[in-house]
Amino acid sequence: MSIDYSQKIPNNVDLASNKTLQRALEHWQPAYLDWWNEMGPDKTTTAEVYLRTAISVDPSGWAHFDYVRMPDYRWGIFLAPQEAGRVVNFGEHKGQAAWQEVPGEYRSTLRRIIVTQGDTEPASVEQQRHLGMTCPSLYDMRNLFQVNVEEGRHLWAMVYLLHAHFGRDGREEGEALLERRSGDADNPRILTAFNEKTPDWLSFFMFTFITDRDGKFQLAALAESGFDPLSRTCRFMLTEEAHHLFVGESGISRIIQRTCEVMAQHKTDDPAKLRAMGVIDLPTLQKYLNFHYSVTSDLYGAEISSNAASFYTNGLKGRYEETKLGDDHRLDSAEYPVMEVVGDRIITKHVPALTALNERLRDDWVKDVQGGIDRWNKVPEKLGIPFRFALPHKGFHRKIGIFGELHLSPEGKVISEAEWTHKHRDWLPTEEDRAFVQSLMGRVAEPGKFANWISPPARGINNQPVDFEYVRFN
Amino acid sequence: MSTAELVKQHLIDPGICIRCNTCEETCPVKAITHDSRNYVVKAEVCNDCRACVPPCPTGAIDNWFPIAPGKPYTLEEQYAWDELPAAAPVATAVGEPDDVARLTSAATAGQGGPVAAPWSAEKPAVNLYNERGPITATVSGNFRLTGEGASADIRHIVLDFGGVHFPLLEGQNIGIVPPGTDAQGRPHHVRLYSVASPRDGERPGYHNCALTVKRVTEDHEKKPVKGVCSNYLCDLKKGDKVQVIGPFGANFLMPNHPGSSLMMICTGTGSAPMRAMTERRRRRIDLKEGGSLMLFFGARAPDELPYFGPLMKLPKEFIDINFAFSRVPGQPKQYVQDRIRERHDDVWRRLNDADCYIYLCGLKGMEKGVDEAFRDVCRRHGGDWDKLLPQLREKSRYHVETY
């Protein structure tokens, strides 16, 4: 269904036919814009950004490119088309018609799931709000803003579900989503990783590569939901999420490229010399990777989880690519391997698969992250540099789950508190590392120019040249 | 589509792709698949609908590689890549514009669609510039080719690309978008012009190309009409700037191998690619590569025949020229098909020479007459045109572009 842009709130859900809902969302809209103006990208209200906007949800119409002032971006409600005859594909309701309304018994659980997902969207905009001031190029600035407006739209998507299906509770949750603030001591965002700072572009690229990938897997699991409006919402959000992953993966890859070029040119791998030449040494990149990977891993929750089991059995949240998996989709007797720590040894034990769904989703994510790391490693390989990036052990630097109380080295060795204190500076970014990265962050805003620490991309956006004026300032 | 006819293959650049699965999810015909390394396109399933292009977040999806006819890269090859093959011809930075695809399709419809380029043809670069990102050329010359008294105003226009990369092969087209808008306020459609100069330029060493443009003053039904693009081009002055897109065309190309021959049949401005090919061969005359050139060229009268003068100066042993004039007072009307019939022995020999490639370019109306003439030549020598034509097509030896 095409998107109705004649409405105050663009939508493809025939909002005009439900006056109560329309009024409720039109009431929320100014509050959203207030939030955007207060917490969205800093000092950008007059900049015209070359952004993509969906004009319909079919392939031909969902990537329409034009210059837009961000406060004028047409945030709206876009659901993937309804699949006729869709059923619940897993759990105890498997085979029943998918729900168009929230089943009463799952109301509070579903609300919690939607609020938790929804809370991450404005949180990341808040985390990234100052980055425009230190962009390494107009191309990157444009990508940042594209990510930001789409996170804003994802908030809209979740608020629509809350308003349309959860009555007064939903409306209150919608307001609370605009009131919490990332990193606020009194009213923080729900998940820890979304209260961390995104102080520099290296962190931003790591965040979009790793943490937005958690978003991808959470959305993919929710896209399997028996609650059809949630499924349709998440399916369309996934198409937008892909761009965010691209920004992260290509961003880091371009940093690696630049560093490796300087290493090859000056025949050195000495971090001090490389830093003096204004590029980020590879061991520092590895430390940032270790940090973002471990913090994001916690977002999947504990390895063994009865909540995850009931979400699944109740048909609310499926597995990644549930409908492509060839099993009974009930997991009554299936098992799944999970790590366990015995003394200072890590062993693998088999537990009921139903209780290990968090771990399973985390494993799917790990595999996906690893694919990206393998692609990054092609850059030094091609330039004849022996350095290779590696993911740390799953138990490294964790706060949640079986490793939460322990210290592990990146190789997966259980170590003492003393050893951790002694060594963690080699594994995680130190204050000095962060200060160095911060020192490189200066704004480059001339078309076709790039900061010294990052290579230009292989291609521009929407086939535009790399030196295209992706952001116009007035 | 059948891969036997495939000349451009849709490929995903594994060096840019982030494996997000959006394309596979989007593809309406399930032509995209993946393994643990790469996302790949099944050449035999992809119908070129391009639904996957806008949703791709990276641009990795946007590659159409010219390939040897019927020899697409296999899935196994694609799975093994870290990047697109360096040995491949120039990648298409952008897809072929719809206007261009439509014009190309119409130009080759008469013979049942485009025929693959000869096996020895140089690999062409295509789609380097599109309407969103055209290249600016400077007019370095605009000369009238037809006599002062002739009814047709046909012009030889030379465009200079300065230092910008714009490779062209004989038989390829460039697109011109006339400035301004039509009566409804929409931008004008693109027009395609076959280059009249060889690959090293109108003047070797200069980065330029020539076009043969007839000022359109009436439509196919002889009603007066002012052709938007042709008048724009014919009125250009030296130093004027023109927006050019392309190059286009990966089929109507000349063979490169020594010993290959050309039989060229054209009318009017259909002579442009023939001039390009002839000039290419002329510049290599000293290499003594063998092969022969035969030309059938139709026009109303000698002073309406573009390049009549220069053609007359070419040595007889270099090119066998056959003119046909349909409006010379006191002489019977002659068409190219009449000349083909007169020269049936030589034509028959060339039809059966595996190294002879045949090119037909001009107005749509000539197609039927030439087809009938070839049929007669075959009949006369005990052959069967209906059997021969598919063989010629299969061997990439028969190329038609009519308008």
Total tally of structural domains of chain A: 1
- List the total number of helices of chain A: 12
Oligomer: heterodimer
Rounded mean pLDDT score of chain A: 94
Q: Give me the secondary-structure category of chain A.
A: mainly alpha
CATH topology of the largest domain in chain B: Rossmann fold
Describe this structure in words.
By secondary structure, chain A is mainly alpha-helical. Chain A has one domain (15-472): Orthogonal Bundle (Ribonucleotide Reductase, subunit A), CATH 1.10.620.20. Chain A is 47% helix and 7% strand. Chain A is built from 12 helices and 7 strands. In chain A, the strands form 3 sheets. In chain A, strands 2-1-7 form a 3-stranded antiparallel beta sheet. In chain A, strands 3-4 form a two-stranded antiparallel sheet. Chain A starts with 18 loop residues before the first helix and ends with a strand. Chain B has a 6-stranded antiparallel beta sheet, sandwiched between helices. A 5-stranded parallel beta sheet of chain B has the order 13-12-11-14-15, sandwiched between helices. A two-stranded antiparallel sheet of chain B has the order 1-4. Chain B is 22% helix and 22% strand. In chain B, helix 7 (336-342) runs parallel beside helix 9 and helix 8 (344-351) crosses helix 9 (365-380). With 403 residues, chain B is α/β, with parallel strands linked by helices. The two termini of chain B are 25 Å apart. Chain B has 3 domains: 1-88, Alpha-Beta Plaits; 135-248, Beta Barrel (Elongation Factor Tu (Ef-tu), domain 3), CATH 2.40.30.10; 251-402, Rossmann fold. The chains are: A mainly alpha (474), B alpha/beta (403). The interface between A and B is medium-sized, with 27 and 24 residues.
